């Protein structure tokens, strides 16, 4: 595919966030190009648990509104399945999982407390002896790989372009605006730029003289062979996140992450696999015979408070920065909508994004990484 | 301070330690282990054979095609058979090698650019009862070869198996349950295998080759019926293969039925590189070495400082297949390499030294090739090279898989056909019927790059099943190459992932150290991440951040 000489909006980063934004813009007929240094959805967007239940986020309502519509809107399958169950093995876990109840109820979503008997009824693979759990009448899960590709295809169906294997080399500026993006395959003139490049966002923003504090980390998941489908696939707990996929596999992660000096190009998994397997066997004793067939790791960025930055900069004023700080996939339908609003209208029309502003780090200590201990081993 | 939810300060439970771990007790592995023991090293040598019957029944780790006899169920008898199958096994015991049969290695790990928490190089081992970690300053992977699968209608029938699997069952287990076989492929390896199987009492009904002439010109003198320019139409039978139907490639109507109980796929022997690739060794496509192999220096060292490779997993070529002394010499050479400095840190493990050694040794390797002769594949003629792995595989897949009448599953675990792969169709279990305006196919994924099998497998699920892609990955790569009109070598190697053998959760489970249990968190354990947005502070200041363990994302 040839590189266009110009586009209204150039989005850097072909993950869930950038592609969703591209799709939202393209479906309004806006001329948009999404660049990726490799293949779409290759980083954290393709390496997550697929959860869609972010009750603490200002984008929660829009996340909940959109997910049931996404297959229809995109025209490609996302494997979205509604609802979520969390299983606790001790009172501390139960109390923790209950925090969702307070947040969700305030926003109009219901949650049921489950006793151990109800857990056994709803979750055929679960342990006999649990501390109970919660049934969230919201949220759910989808297939990250399929969803990311669906965004890309749906955007292309509306006239948007995806350029894979295209790296950003720099930006051209005029006054308070970026006028073009220089890439490994040519320069693309633009009216707006969206930086949605996951762990690379900080480096790219740095090219514009903008400091987006973040540190990358490595986190691991495992997947088993298929098992008979449970009535609700979105079951997690015992310190794990994940889901039973529609194929029947158990795809779960959790446990310690590893902070990195810089975003790594390699994503090795480690023997932590065995610890995740142990937690999963306890969560689902009736699946303890199921065989692990893969483990993998993702490289994930986090801002100092773990919240997203979704902000239109003051300077250059035609740039939107979007890093979701390790919780990007599930929110992506709503994130794309918010980015569309910031690009087109200058302000998000459906949610209060003030907690996502970049200037909340104006008082951040220079040595914040040391203070928070986000250092490599 | 450190982030208590991070891996920093967590320890891995390592059950045992050795100086050298050798994985695979074929000629290379045995020679490596014996040599290292003679040099005074503490050596553990593991080999997954005898493989449990249930795994064999699922074609793990080889394409056994259900042709193992019931004797395989007797594990102790099979262990005895494996020991008796190679006099060097006894020699290894005598040399003081800690040799463990029926023990598989499911992963090799070390610190590197994105990992720093491991105590040093470690490997995951498992037997039918448990799995555990072993620490080893150095490891030599001698994982051997396996068969490329080939889809045609009926290839799922018991009796369709691979040449490596057939020979392994015959020679190592004494448990090959085949009387009359048709062999697919006419490479030197396929023909030599057919000869050995004939010597073992299997009648070879015919040898089928898609190319117009046998790939090994000596084939005509071996006394086999040779059908060149022929393709497989289907295998027929009810509870097993009863006959194979073939036809001339250019005359599909002129079918011929060949009675047989076994069809042996000998199209291509593939280096078993899964441990090496999953560990992060640099790999390269090398048709004269049988496909994707680790980048090695003249001393069998990979690009990772703790890891070496020898034998078929380091490259397969005809002279090496015929003379096990070449593999043995590779093993001994690997065993003689000095132990690396113990390196805990990620910087050391990243191996600047190893990279430099590689650039130096390439010239060394070239020099060596002149004197050693058959010890390297460079003695192949240009003709052999042109027919080497890449072209042969493409030709078979083009003729047999793409042109197959009944749309057989290429990926049998996930039931994915060649057309599903080329059209990037979502899996059937989704029941997705779209009247969507744009038909999606391989071209819509390509962009500027070659087709990537990992991207295709995520969308079609081809290669994501319980056989971990061993039956289909070369076919999928060939389909993508043919679909995109590029050479096989341009299609990236689909990634391998630990565990490289399916491992039950209850076996895979490793002890959780107290400090890991105390701070185990679902996600990053970052309290500020979950403060609802209406309570979020205006500014984030690191010193004032909320701190709490066991927070939770969803």
What's this entry about, in short?
The complex is a heterodimer of chains A (377) and B (554). Chain A is α/β, with parallel strands linked by helices. Chain A is built from eleven helices and 17 strands.
Strand residue content of chain A: 25-35%
Query: What would you call the structural class of chain A?
Result: alpha/beta
Shape of chain A: globular
Largest interface by residue count? Answer: A-B, 114 and 93 residues
Proportion of residues in helical segments of chain A: 25-40%
Helix fraction bin of chain B: 25-40%
Terminal residue distance of chain B:
27 Å
SSE pattern of chain A, N- to C-terminal: EHEHHEHHEHEHEEEEHEEEEEHEEEHH
Q: Output the number of helix runs of chain B.
A: 20
Low-confidence blocks of residues of chain A: none
DSSP helical segment count of chain A: 11
Residue stretches of chain B low in confidence (pLDDT < 50, at least 5 long) are 343-357, 359-373, 550-554
Dominant shape of chain B: globular
Mean pLDDT of chain A: 96
Assembly form of the protein = heterodimer
CA(first)-CA(last) distance of chain A: 42 Å
Radius of gyration of chain A: 21 Å
The averaged pLDDT of chain B comes out at 90
Q: Radius of gyration of chain B, Cα only, in angstroms?
A: 25 Å
Supply the helix-strand structural class of chain B.
alpha/beta
Word description of this protein:
- The complex is a heterodimer of chains A (377) and B (554).
- Chain A has eleven helices and 17 strands.
- In chain A, helix 1 links the parallel strand 1 and strand 2 (32-35).
- The N and C termini of chain A lie far apart (42 Å).
- The mean pLDDT of chain A is 96.
- Chain A is an alpha/beta fold and 377 residues long.
- Chain B is α/β, with parallel strands linked by helices and 554 residues long.
- Helix content of chain B is 31%, strand content 18%.
- In chain B, the strands form six sheets. In chain B, strands 1, 2, 3, 4, 5, 6 and 19 form a seven-stranded mixed sheet that branches. In chain B, strands 8-15-9-10-11 form a five-stranded parallel sheet. A three-stranded antiparallel sheet of chain B has the order 12-13-14.
- In chain B, strand 13 (243-248) and strand 14 form a beta hairpin.
- In chain B, helix 1 (27-38) packs parallel to helix 4 (87-94), helix 1 runs parallel beside helix 9 (324-336) and helix 13 (389-402) crosses helix 17.
- Chain B starts with 15 loop residues before the first strand and ends in a 24-residue tail after the last helix.
- The chains are: A alpha/beta (377), B alpha/beta (554).
